[in-house]
Amino acid sequence: MKAYVFPGQGAQFVGMGKELYENSALAKAMFEKANEIIGFRITDLMFNGTDEDLKQTKVTQPAIFLHSVILGSVLPDFKPGMVAGHSLGEFSALVMNKTLSFEDAFRLVIARANAMQKACELAPSTMAAILGLADNVVEEICASIPEVVVAANYNCPGQLVISGSIAGVQIACEKLTAAGAKRALMLNVGGAFHSPLMEPARVELAAAIHATNFANPICPIYQNINAQATIDPNQIKDNLILQLTGAVRWTQTIEAMIAGGASSFTEVGPGTVLQGLVKKVDRQMPTASASILTA
Predict the structure, then answer these.
(1) How far is it, in rounded angstroms, from Cα 287 to Cα 59?
(2) In what order do the strands lie in the sheet with 159-165?
């Protein structure tokens, strides 16, 4: 069974989507529709902007979503048996399994990005990558710290990202290094994604999600919050809302997809990060990137 996975924030690069725009009539039409919806030419920033332009959450998230969904839309014989997305990538996955329309999902991504950026501005916060420790050790040390700091992204065995206040993450990094972490690397991110500090964004996004139509999908989505296969539109909504303040359980998601019958994984979107994470879970699992094809 073919599994398709969609990347999240951090996969962006200058020039993303340009070849699609220039070589596919369908892609060009979708990009222009997106420019109309967002109210400025996001394609200019994607194709010819700077790294700094693309690092803004309000630009990054819509840009990655557009690249992923438009690339997926021009693929021939796209017949997913299951889908999943890393954080933001869940919105791309939900378009590609027909739960959300392109336009509705893009509006939700814009709302999510703006809400998250506002939440980041309310209080200084950050994230850090922790390498070489068992998940339970990281969880226990984070729980022992009085500042806000939690396990946020379970990316693959031995690689976990923590998220919280700047003081909380700094203290956690010191304690985790002392506990034997190979690396505890502070990340250059806008804020504490997937932590309780995103609560204002969760509340704002919840209203937008509840006002949007979610259809019955053509295949299950394995969602970040619980790593379980879901086809119920109402459950999908709830899980998508919980994701903002909850952890991205990517390791568990890939394990569940393999147990559910995944025979290969294709990454659809910018970069190849997710392929590498799949290989860290199962070295023998075939992985691929979606090719940029003309329409």
Answers:
(1) 28
(2) 149-156, 159-165, 125-131, 183-186
CA 77 centroid distance within chain: 24
183, containing H or E segment: strand 183-186
Active site members: 87, 194
Q: Running DSSP on this structure, what letter comes out for residue 248?
A: B
- The pTM assigned to this predicted structure is 0.95
Q: Tell me how far apart the alpha carbons of residues 208 and 259 are, in angstroms, rounded to a whole number.
A: 33
Residue 181 token pair: 């972490």
All structural domains of the chain, each given as residue ranges with its CATH number in brackets, are 2-121+196-289 (3.40.366.10), 123-186 (3.30.70.250)
**Residue 184 phi/psi, 5° resolution?**
-135, 95
The rounded distance, in Å, linking the Cα atoms of 118 and 56 is 12
DSSP summary character for residue 216: P
Q: Please give the chain's pLDDT, 295 residues, in tens.
A: 999 999 998 889 999 999 999 999 999 999 999 999 999 999 999 999 999 888 888 899 999 999 999 999 999 889 999 999 999 999 999 999 999 999 999 999 999 999 999 998 888 899 999 999 999 999 999 999 999 999 999 999 999 999 999 999 999 999 999 999 999 999 988 889 999 999 999 999 999 999 999 999 999 999 999 999 999 999 999 999 999 999 999 999 999 999 999 999 999 999 899 999 999 999 999 999 986 543 3
